[in-house]
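Example record

The entry below shows one chain as it appears in the dataset: sequence first, then structure tokens.
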Amino acid sequence: MIEFYTASTVNGYKVAIALEELGLEYTVKDLNLGALEQKKPEYLKINPNGRIPAIVDKDANDAAVFESGACLIYLAEKAGKLLPKDPVARGQALSWLFLQVSGVGPMQGQANVFMHYFGEDLPNVVARYVNETKRLYGAIEERLGKVDYFAGEYSIADIAMYPWLTISAYSGVVIDDFPNIKAWIARMEERPAVKRGMGVPPKREIADRAAAAQAILQR
């Protein structure tokens, strides 16, 4: 049994999709980011970084894993799926996974923050992050012009990319400019586990927008 600590954010959805694809038994611990539940001492024992997602493997002496990429690798190796055995394909899967967690997520996330939440108009800063996001999309577009999935076969690399690339418009990126990505998104949307994972947990009603913005800046 996996205890899955998450919230309705793109990084949380990555692990939710993986759990659904792998068919692992799990329970959801839906943290209220607006209430800063991710900063409470009991959660910091699981994830010292105070962010989501994190998992606790009840079948492995309550082993805790945090950071979305680490969670994806742990779950794939636990189930023996979604991470190729062939060293070359495995290297591709890990390369694109790490590009997402070290590049796409941070750059696109900063674009979102400065466009929507920061509270100060900084056009040069926005342009810096939007343009870097577009550059990364260009690399992804080239890859998906050669293969249907990042590693040649469906893997955790695709799962990591999907939630972020589906919110491109929110980040100032026009997806129609990237037809290979757009076609890949359509392939991903056909997978039942992807659809299920994108609903775990259900989106939380936001009563206090100011508190939500502060949570985003802190998480």
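Notes for this example: The mean pLDDT is 94. The first strand starts at residue 2 and ends at 6.
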